[in-house]
């Protein structure tokens, strides 16, 4: 009887907690309506803070998740990293400290109930600074590398930080200074919370992690160059099999596929934003054969380059262009 009463009390507390959380989410949604009035990614006067809105479903679309922390206020998304799928629901947050090729799907969004999320961009050095200043210590017993992105559940304290940040937008005099403090507080909250060890291990993976962080950074800086996995492994004092295993554990794909996707995303940006033709874009990102570029582009984005860019431009003109993750 006592056990049943305890279970009932737990259920009541859980329902009350969910009610309060949903009420807070609704408050934040109301605050974002004056900022994100159209679909896509809307930047705010806070340099690192943006709002993303989608009023219709979006099929699986390849992109790159940059170092950031985001929270979904309403709706549902799925992130696909290689063979890994991460579900992202209202009240969840996602975090990554490395550039990760990802395919994103927006599910169930409509004009009546758009998918709305908030995003905070940060750097590894900002995270390291908080770890040092706050003297946060981690007892990491499991030395395994984890996927470089993860999803967790937000709490009232974290949601309150977003409310404070949104309130700053109308206070231009104090915005920059105070927003930086709130950002550090958010990072501290993530590090000191339930998922802090994952965040910390991502910092290790980016900075050290047996050469994986250095390998990722080298590819980002030299993605136009041709290289072999053997050369990359040797330069990081690793075996080929060790590099493959650890690289895939963090990014969900291998080094050469990582390079390929960086090339293709940059080529897409050049063709869309700078109106560069297909052949020039292919050569600009390191391809020697435009036909190979076209094949690989179609394999990733589902359409040949020219057709895909035309479709993106049409979506942009109709206000449907997907921007932001």
Automatic annotation (TrEMBL):
Domain HTH araC/xylS-type stretches: 213-311
Listed SUPFAM superfamilies: Homeodomain-like
Superkingdom of source: Bacteria
Keywords: DNA-binding, Transcription, Transcription regulation
GO molecular function: DNA-binding transcription factor activity; sequence-specific DNA binding
Keyword ATP-binding carried by entry: no
Keyword Ribosomal protein tagged: no
InterPro entries the record matches: Homeodomain-like_sf, HTH_AraC, HTH_AraC-typ_CS, Tscrpt_reg_HTH_AraC_N
Identification of the protein by name: AraC family transcriptional regulator
């Amino acid at each position: 009887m006592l056990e049943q009463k305890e279970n009932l009390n737990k259920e009541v507390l859980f329902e009350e907690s969910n009610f309060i959380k949903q009420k807070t989410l609704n408050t934040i949604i109301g605050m974002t309506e004056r900022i994100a009035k159209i679909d896509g990614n809307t930047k705010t006067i806070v340099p690192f803070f943006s709002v993303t809105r989608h009023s219709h479903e979006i099929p699986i679309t390849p992109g790159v998740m940059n170092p950031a922390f985001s929270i979904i206020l309403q709706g549902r998304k799925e992130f696909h990293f290689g063979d890994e799928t991460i579900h992202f629901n209202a009240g969840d947050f996602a975090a990554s400290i490395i550039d990760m090729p990802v395919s994103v799907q927006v599910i169930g969004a409509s004009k009546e109930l758009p998918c709305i999320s908030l995003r905070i961009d940060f750097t590894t050095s900002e995270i390291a600074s908080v770890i040092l200043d706050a003297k946060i210590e981690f007892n990491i017993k499991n030395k395994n590398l984890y996927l470089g992105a993860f999803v967790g559940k937000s709490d009232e304290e974290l949601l309150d930080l977003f409310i404070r940040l949104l309130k700053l937008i109308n206070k231009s005099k104090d915005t920059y200074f105070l927003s930086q403090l709130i950002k550090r507080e958010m990072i501290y909250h993530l590090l000191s919370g339930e998922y802090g060890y994952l965040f910390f291990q991502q910092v290790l993976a980016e900075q050290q992690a047996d050469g994986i962080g250095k390998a990722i950074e080298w590819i980002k800086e030299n993605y136009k160059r041709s290289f072999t996995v053997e050369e990359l492994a040797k330069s990081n004092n690793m075996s080929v099999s060790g590099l493959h295993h650890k690289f895939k554990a963090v990014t969900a794909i291998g080094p050469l596929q990582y390079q390929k996707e960086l090339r293709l995303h940059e080529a897409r940006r050049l063709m869309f934003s700078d109106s560069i033709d297909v052949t020039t874009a292919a050569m600009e990102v390191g391809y020697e054969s435009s036909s190979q570029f076209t094949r690989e582009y179609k394999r990733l984005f589902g359409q040949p380059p020219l057709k895909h860019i035309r479709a993106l431009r049409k979506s942009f003109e109709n206000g449907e262009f997907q921007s932001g993750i």
